[in-house]
Amino acid sequence: MAKKYKSKWYAGGLAFECQQSGNCCSGEPGHVWVTKKEIATIAKYLGIEGDWLPRKYLRRVGFRYSLTEYANGDCVFLGRSEEGCASCQIHEVKPTQCRTWPFWGSNLKSSDHWNEAAKGCPGMNRGPLHTLVQIDEIRLMKAPS
Q1: Residue 24 belongs to some domain of the structure
Q2: What is the mean pLDDT of residues 108-113?
Q3: What is the pTM of this model?
Q4: Rounded distance, CA 77 to CA 65, Å?
Q5: Does the pLDDT of residue 3 top 60, yes or no?
Q6: Three-state DSSP class for 113?
Q7: Cis peptide upstream of residue 29 (ω within 30 degrees of 0)
Q8: Is the CB of residue 39 less than 8 Å from the CB of residue 58?
Q9: How far is 58 from 65, CA to CA, in rounded Å?
Q10: What number of other Cβ atoms are within 10 A of residue 71's Cβ?
Q11: Domain count along the chain
Q12: Which range of residues forms the domain containing residue 16?
């Protein structure tokens, strides 16, 4: 197993600390995939009766569900202070897809992929160093079904 870890380009770890830019929660249209269990958890957190989110927060995409976005690409749960700091209005219960940023497989393919993503995320390559084991624990986190 040690050999497997040594072969990864990020075996020495990666630095990341959220800077509350909101860049990971806005921009080009996309999807924040959520499971039925995550939907129920978010609904409960927001004080919504039942275990489902209304259409203003949730959309169906094929056989899956995604949080909605505003026309400018902001996630429906992205809040911004007057000073420009971004915050997730459901941070305590945010979906697994959000919890695993920036340690997504697409960003970890190579150092070039990581550094390309870092151009849009000021928290990448700064802050505390995450070890290879920590990165893989986050990367492989499963959403509750």
Answers
A1: yes
A2: 97
A3: 0.88
A4: 15
A5: no
A6: helix
A7: no
A8: yes
A9: 7
A10: 6
A11: 1
A12: 2-139
Q: Which residue has the tokens 């000021």?
A: 122
**Quick check: is 144 in a domain?**
no
Token reading at 141: 């986190």
Other beta carbons within 10 Å of 66: 18
The answer to whether residue 46 sits within a structural domain is yes
Rounded CA-CA distance 99/92 in Å is 10
> Any idea which of 12-16, 77-81, 114-118, 123-127 has the lowest mean pLDDT?
77-81
Q: How confident is the model at residue 6 (pLDDT cuts 50, 70, 90)?
A: low
* Integer Cα distance of 122 and 58 in angstroms: 28
Of the two residues 6 and 68, the one the predictor is more confident about is: 68
In a domain, 145, yes or no: no
Helix (H, G, I), strand (E, B) or coil at 97: helix
* pLDDT for the residue 5: 55
3 state SS of 13 = coil
Closest CA to 93 of 24, 135, 133, 40: 40
